[in-house]
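Follow-up to my post from last week.
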Amino acid sequence: MTSTPALYELRGATRFFQLGDSTIKAVDGVDLSLDAEEFVAIEGPSGSGKTTLLQLLGALDRPSSGKVFFEGRDLGTLGDSELAELRLRSFGFIFQQFNLLSTLTALQNVEAGLAPFGIASAELRERSLAALSEVGLRERAFHLPGQLSGGEQQRVAIARALSGEPRVVLADEPTGNLDSKSGADVIALLTNLASKHGITIIVATHDAGLAAQAPRRLAMHDGCLVADGGKSARSNKRGSR
Amino acid sequence: MFYLSYLRSELLRRKGRTILTLLGLALGIALVIVITALSHGLDRAQKTALNPLSSIGTDLTVTVKPEGVGGGAFANRTVSTDLSKLGKAGQHFSYDIFSSGSQTTFAQSQAKSVSSIPGVAKIATGLTLTATHQEGKVPKITALFKTGGQQLRVSGQVKPLSAASLAKMAKCMAKLEKSRAPTTTTTNATHGGLQPSQNGSPTASPIAKGSGPIQACMPAGVRRFSKTITVPRQTLKKQVRTPQTNIKTSSYTIGGVDTSRTDMGLITPAQVTSGRFLAKKGGREALVAGAYASSHKLKLGSTLALNRTKFKVVGIVQAPLGGQSADVYVPLQQLQTLSGQKSQINVVLVRATKGAAVGAVQKEIEKTFPSAQVASSKQVADQVSGSLVDASNLAKSLGLALSIIVIAMAFMMAALLTLSSVAKRVREIGTLRALGWTRRLVIRQIAGESLLQGVAGGVIGVAIGIAAAAAIDAFGPTLTASSTAAGSDQAVLPGAFVMGQGLARTTTSQVALRAPVAGSIILIGFALALLGGLLAGAVGALRAARLRPADALRQVE
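User reply:
Got it. Predicted complex:
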């Protein structure tokens, strides 16, 4: 077990954005280690760099400096297509705005997440329907996003994120656009499915109630990791610089 | 296939944008097709109108410029009709006067020297004359003036004779009696009056000169009675009425055709629309241009009388526009005879050995015959004017510009719409990238949408274009093409010196406009639509491809 690398290993991970003359450090030298099958909450006010950190973790972005290792691979050195491959096979994303494709039905939205696998249409449909069944929306499969409630839309997004059997689901304010009831439902659904499939969940949120459910809580401020309430034995570095 | 269903969903669920793009492309393509078809049709119409020109196999037309404007060949050109020579009043007359127009005639033999110019494949000769036709009834023009026959009666008294005169007279008479007796015995009585002068006294001679011997005995007052009588002078005033005539004058052109050859000439069998070409032996046969035939009610088999020579109409022809067209064609020799221009021609038609040689041959002829006017078929065609040419030019210049503008606009619209769709879909694209779609997949999807729109737009556009072309075909507006015939330097001819000669004759040809849609046009239209789609797709896809997934996701919708 000790020979297998940590799920994530971040060393001084930094992400700048150039806005005119000023440089914004969205993520500023984060050192972090995460294990598989963890449920991690990243807390912090808006603009603290949660989303950018999630994007670094989800291979949507490369660090400006520092290293992000995922399963031992330095994401900064991978090419676009390798990153795309990683996103397809290893990561699932859930967004605050649900980000469903508005012209596609719930089923097609799930299929969109599986299509790049290049599986046959019949299997694609079968797996997508199965994923929708898991979130309890099988009968809503042919509805367009506009015909679904916010909670239902987020459940479709969850089905889409999980259908590819990823290693990690990265959720950015998943309850931000939902009322507390459906927010709680969505989180319950997400955590249940994640543990059932052995998927690591990383949630960025400023919802303290949601963060409280997470065994490991990270706090961010101005791009720095200010608190790590984690139980991870390997991660004893406190992020501050 | 998921990508296709995604594509279909995307296009179907964004109907407004899709329809706008489709219509833009379709209208652009339709316009291109219609304009291309129109200009094709116009070209064809123009060819139809000008076709005879090229099909008479003539590259160059050689005529001879008259020497000196208004002089020389033109000196004796006014047509005057001597009414008194037409016949008896009331008789119907019809005759034709031929003149060679602005083209000087020259000996047929001279044409041979043209054929010896290098580059000349063959030549044909012809005589194109302008004819003035007059017909009507011979008018009454005689006015009778009778003079003479007046009777003058003069009466007067002769002066009474004196006694001495009477005695003298009696003596004279007695003497006369006496002299007569011997004369009758010595000479023949028949020579009575002359004999005494031979041997009689000299005084007898005045007597002999008188009308009678008795007169000589009369006294002078009686012998010479004279009086001057003057008939009173009077001025006769009588109006001679100008004769009422119904003489019609019309002019037409007549061409003398070298019937020995049928491959080139003023007119060839190719222009015969009904009937047949002139027989080789050159009898009294005529070909009549369609327009002339209908306006003069001539049919196949009709008789055309030219100065009492009867020609049988054996064919109706579609006269070539331009250069040397004529209304009536008769065998060359017949026309030469009719017009009294034996062995004279005024046109040499030249065919060059090859198209490229035309220019050189033209120069050579002009050099060899300084007075020659050489016109190439192209120049003649350039002289053709009329709505047909206008429309054709319009279609060519404006149409081309218009279709380029429309196509460019359609392309631009498609590209802009795709761009705006990409801009609107930035988050969607970011999501797709987050879902693990590669850049290539995203580009393929976006470009696929545009391409499909291009295909659909092309199909619709082709359909609209074909329908529009069919509509034009159905309505088929008539276009006219006119060509000013004969002399190439008419502008310098003073208009006044010829009357009724119709020198600047205009040949008009009517052609119905058609808009034939060629298969190639459809293909081109379709290809254009595809290109438009691809272009729009490429623009959109490039924009999409440049997006970094993280940035795309950050975009707030």
